[in-house]
Write a structure and sequence with these properties.
Blueprint (H helix, E strand, L loop, with lengths): L10 H13 L8 H14 L2 E5 L2 H11 L7 E5 L4 H8 L4 E5 L13 H4 L4 E4 L11 H11 L2 E5 L7 E2 L2 E2 L6 E5 L12 E5 L5 H8 L5 H5 L19 H11 L2 H24 L12 E2 L5 E4 L3 H13 L15 H6 E3 L6 H5 L2 E4 L7 H16 L2
Parallel strand pairs: 2-3, 2-4, 3-12, 4-5, 5-8
Antiparallel strand pairs: 1-9, 6-7, 6-10, 8-9, 11-13
């Protein structure tokens, strides 16, 4: 069976893990490998960053830093992973889901104003498949209404909007290094702190509410509990595995883009024949080939295609079930306006195998089987 995903593997990553264990004898957080990863990100992104145990925890940190309270409202798309909503629901916020754009599967920025109330505290754009939301319009609205912006860029590392790295545009950004992402540490994440007034408190929250980071820098003579917080530090072994990928980040990115472009060429004939829809990339966006998906005619056709691909030895999968239709989504949030595209488009979407070790001839094989499926339809 051709897998849908395989986590990035590098021999150097294994060597770095051994170094953390045998040479550094340091496995807990914020050791040499964490510092090297942090340095790499800060030099590339030109903002303050902190490695976390997950993108979920990075989002939770953003919610804590923004002091989200019960009764506050947070606007986001329903077509997203549960972590986007969980981070704010945990603070007692009410989630206001809005519809997505049909073309990019991102939040429809034209619907934001209708969802804003006097209780709205945060807008959370989710950059689906590493393709940016329309950030200029989102920021304009956020500024007009004095609302914070937290970018869920879990899938967005190495992608840009008008030349700006995703995650660096709002007040906060978050990345994921889950094993399904372009760069992985198994479980892990990153919070990007683009408003410097939050940096000191972010370090405290990340260190269980203590000023331990200041102590290690020699800024205080002892550390103590000074605020609320939790344990958001990843292990040095996780950071060691990630660092090896950061050192070849552009190589990984270019390989994925070649695979993505291969899919796009191979499936163009089906698009031209009106059989499927392919991903749309706005001109101002540079994506990172996080995923390649197609859209079928409807849910029934998608189910048949996924089953057929499995019979051909290929693992193809659907994606998010819209949050507003889930039990927790109904409990902690509500959908604002009309669901024109969220449910309908999510039921048509099929994700195809995409990972660093994938070969172009395997992409051709996948595309060939999809063409065979549609040949008789």
């Amino acid at each position: 069976m051709l897998a849908f995903n395989e986590p990035v593997y590098t021999q150097k990553g294994i060597g770095y893990i051994s170094e953390a264990i045998l040479k550094n004898k340091r496995l807990n957080g914020d050791g040499p490998f964490t510092r090297e990863c942090t340095k790499w990100f800060e030099e590339k992104l030109n903002t303050k960053v902190l490695l976390t145990t997950s993108c979920t925890h990075a989002l939770e940190m953003a919610a804590l830093l923004l002091e989200i309270q019960p009764g506050d409202e947070v606007i986001m798309p329903s077509f997203t992973f549960v972590s986007t909503a969980d981070a704010f629901a945990l603070r007692g916020a009410k989630i206001k889901f809005i519809d997505i754009r049909k073309d990019t599967m991102n939040m429809d920025e034209t619907l934001l104003i209708d969802a804003i109330t006097e209780r709205t505290k945060v807008i959370v754009p989710v950059h689906y498949a590493g393709v940016s939301c329309e950030m200029d319009k989102i920021l304009q609205i956020a500024n007009d209404y004095n609302i914070s912006v937290v970018e869920d860029a879990a899938q967005g590392m190495m992608a840009t909007y008008k030349g700006r790295d995703l995650g660096t545009i709002g007040d906060f950004g978050t990345y994921s290094f889950h094993e399904t992402k372009n760069y992985t540490m198994g479980e892990g994440g990153l919070i990007l702190i683009n408003n410097q007034e939050y940096v000191k408190r972010a370090e405290i929250i990340r260190e269980k509410g203590t000023n331990r980071t200041e102590f290690f820098r020699g800024e205080v003579d002892k550390y103590s509990w000074v605020d609320m917080g939790s344990s958001y530090l990843p292990s040095e072994m996780n950071a060691a595995y990630l660092l090896a990928q950061l050192e070849i980040a552009e190589e990984i990115n270019q390989k994925r883009l070649r695979l993505w472009n291969c899919y796009d060429r191979e499936l163009k004939s089906l698009k031209d024949a009106g059989k499927v829809e392919l991903p749309y990339i706005p001109e101002e966006c540079q994506h990172n080939a996080h995923m390649y998906y197609i859209k079928t005619k409807n849910l029934e056709e998608r189910t048949e295609l996924i089953q057929y691909m499995a019979e051909m030895g290929i693992k193809a999968v659907f994606h998010y079930v819209p949050l507003h239709s889930s039990a927790a989504g109904r409990r902690y949030g509500e959908f604002v306006g009309e669901d024109r595209y969220t449910t309908k488009e999510s039921e048509r979407l099929v994700r195809l195998p995409m990972f660093y070790a994938l070969k172009e001839d395997e992409v051709v094989y996948v595309a060939d089987k999809i063409r065979n499926f549609y040949a008789g339809r």
